[in-house]
Amino acid sequence: MRYILLNPGPVSISDGVRKAAVATDLCHREPEYYVLQDRIRSGLLDVYNCSPDEWTSVLLGGSGTTALEAMLSSLLPRQARLLVVENGVYGERISRIAGIHNIEFSAVQHEWTDPIDFERVEEALSAGDFTHVAAVHHETTTGRLNDMGRLAELCEQAGAGLLLDTVSSFGAENIPFGSPALIACAATANKCLHGIPGLCFVLSRKTSLETAAEPPRSLYLHLPLWVTAQDQQGTPFTPPVNSLLALDKALAELRNQGGWKARHAHYSSLAGQVRRALSRQGVKPLLEPGDSSCVLNAYCLPSGKTYAEIHDGLKQRGFIIYAGQGRLVSEMFRISTMGDISRYDMERLLAALSSVLFQDAWQPSMGDKIGQ
Length: 372
Ligand SMILES: *Cc1c(COP(=O)(O)O)cnc(C)c1O
Fold this sequence. Notes:
Layout: E1 4-5, H1 15-21, H2 31-47, E2 55-61, H3 64-75, E3 81-86, H4 89-100, E4 104-109, H5 118-128, E5 132-136, E6 138-139, E7 144-145, H6 148-158, E8 161-165, E9 182-188, E10 199-205, H7 206-210, H8 223-231, H9 241-256, H10 259-280, E11 296-300, H11 307-316, E12 319-320, E13 322-323, E14 332-336, H12 343-358
Parallel strand pairs: 1-12, 3-4, 3-5, 5-8, 8-9
Antiparallel strand pairs: 2-10, 6-7, 9-10, 11-14, 13-14
Helix pairs in contact: 1-9, 2-9, 5-6, 10-12, 11-12
The structure holds pyridoxal-5'-phosphate (PLP).
């Protein structure tokens, strides 16, 4: 069975991307590879119209966490003082990375289900003499879209550079590239960009690469090593060539489909379709309306059903959903709407959910009929 993946990455990919990934054998020391690498690096800047005079993109092999750890360990100079904003698993991961690399940091902590308390962030910034702030744009733990425009403004006032985990938002949500405070963001090929796993990247202001940590905190994760080689049509290590082939095609599809704003609208429409149908069946979203990203919504487990029952029932019917993390595992489930999926796929999901939750037949409401 070919499953429809409704977990937050890797995502269901298009047939075009699947074919592109295995279309050819490519040596990474040949000119064909460098043409591909250059096209992807500039294609990533183009997703948000970042000027190549100010910004550069660095590709590296690994999952989203690789990009995150590379961004933090390379772009924070040795004397940096970092403020981390945490309201979920991924914010807490930033603090773990900072701790492992002996970066001086403190964290503004929140409950996983809470929005960022900007008053506390402002207080910490005015009291603490921080050079940098790091935060998660879309906190996939709960599906919350954190307000990065507001955080960027606070960083501008405090003169701090902002480093963002945009792993589950790059390609589908608005990122405040216009703010001079934003210096870098980390992301991956296999979430909102609809590529395959293995390739991740950091978009960085060129000036921030010039002030990178010296001496380096890591060999593989040190971004200046990668960018210097990539700027000279090289690569320091073997890149995930097939993931580049796939991302090249996925970026072309994103452009043809109208770019990130069109993708945002598509995800929002699918998420709304699911949310309305579940709400009619008494399944409540975990967060207040308007607080979730278009990428992923978390729902409270209906009483009398365990996650395992819902997950296994849906898997039998061809859909993979996602459990809550950590202490939320017994309270919620998550449905992501990223990937190459359609309203028709969602209609089939809702029919499957209805039969798993209530063992009854699913009646689409007039407003949600396909084609409307
Ligand atoms: C998926 C994700 C990551 C990275 O996860 P990997 O398993 O390393 O790819 C980091 N941050 C957020 C917000 C994510 O959703």
